[in-house]
Amino acid sequence: MRILRLKLKNFRQFYGECELEFLSDDTSRITVIHGENGSGKTSLLNAFKWVLYGKTDFDTGEQTILNELALSEIALGAVTELSLELEFEHEGSTYTVHRKQEFKRTGEALEAEPIGKSVPTLSWIDERGKYETAKNPANRINQLIPEQMHSYFFFNGERIEKLANVSASGEIRDAIKTLMGLEIIDRASDHLGRLVIKDLRKEASETASADYRELLEKEARINTEIDQRKQERDTATKSSKGFQTELDAINASYEQIADVKAKAEQRRSLETERGTIEGDLESLSQERMELVSQTGALAFLSDTVTSVSNALEDCRKKGELPYKIRRTFIDDLLHDAMCICGTELQEGSQARAALEGYRDQATGEDLEAAFTDVVSNLRAMPRERNRLYAQLSTWSAKESDYNKRLKAIAEELDEISSNLGSSDIEDVKRLEERRNELTQLQADERLKIVKAKDAIELLNDDLAKIKKEIDKVQSKSQKEDLARQKLEFAEACKNLVDNLHEALAEETRHHLSSKVNDTFQSILRKDFYAEIDRDYTLR
């Protein structure tokens, strides 16, 4: 989307008709507007919001958007008009949005009231040159630029600072979901879970047998408890982010005080390092769990590997495994009724009977392949066990180093906090007291988040067990069977929608992360990279 021009008539500081053209060709894409305080820069920013949505961010409301000079030129009871027109390009079409509002002068002190609501119109010329107008302008505008997204396109310095804050990650995540259409999938999942499945479960319970009804009631109770735990988790997450916002403000205040700026910067550096180490510890723990789940049994198989290897070696020495003649070879000789030495193998002959005896001792291809695989794996197990021990030892040493560094960081942070808390500067003491209070409150909320996540995990395990029991219960009537099928279909649909949402969200995050990193790399030449993590925080 490229903004081409903005026309204003009697809007705020802009008396009469004014036009602002924006550079949008391939060589010039930036238009700089500068002026003194009160000259109308913020009014221009609000002009975009008003022409698109009929709203502004002015504290004084919509009554003051009319230019005072234009109002002073009309008599008491007379009417004047305010209008804005925005022209922009989007996907090959040129759009024109026009909005006007009439005002009636109501008092000598330049007072006016709007007459009715503002009237928007939207027209466009497509890439084929066809002219069209929108029957529902507001709906069409929201399709082009959703109203809840306008602050990501039209913003000031304070807005940029807020978005750059770690606590804004949730807001950014929701915005990305809206832009990519994921919000619709969110609503579909919520509708299925909160309304459809709930109603179908009630319907199934009414027609169910006693056993089935009891299981459905248990399932409903577990789902209700899961929803409660999720609500607790989300509330705690929101509170934690709120505390973080205030902590960020306190840290910024410290850096404005010359006497403690160095200490504040040192603390910020230490906290960043602590966060990195905690992330590394979590990754290490995850990798260790995965390795142990895959190969951990090797640590307990030393005696078993030895005994099995000895047994197979005895079989090999006795010629039992693998046998020197394959069964398929003997089958071919019996089929041809001729031995490799030239002896005929007639039915009932002594030669044929001897060869059939060898056939019973011969090794089948499947058994021989299994023998080879087992021997190969047994030989590899000691090496894999040693590799497991070596990797676990490496991780243990690294974990020990991480914990030592975390302890040292904690001591340094405590010392900084103590120094700031005993500062002779009263504002610093007050800020540090509040900071310590917020830190404790945030720690409490994070503990609630962890407890809620653990509870949800256990409840999901219980839910899976209940579902298995439900699957075992047989329907007692056709009506009950139909109700069960409808419920199972709705649950399958919700799972499908949830999986689709997760896949699309992850794909979107990876795409955006790659785009951000490309931009980051084009700006900096240092050996750093940027990414958007799973919490939609820029790192």
TrEMBL record:
Keywords: Coiled coil
PANTHER family per the UniProt record, alphabetical: ABC TRANSPORTER ABCH.3
Secretion signal span: none
GO molecular function (one): ATP hydrolysis activity
Gene Ontology process terms (BP): double-strand break repair
Residue ranges that the Swiss-Prot or TrEMBL entry lists as coiled coil: 428-476
Organism: marine sediment metagenome
Entry keyword Zinc: no
Name of the protein in question: Rad50/SbcC-type AAA domain-containing protein
Chain ranges of the Rad50/SbcC-type AAA domain: 5-254
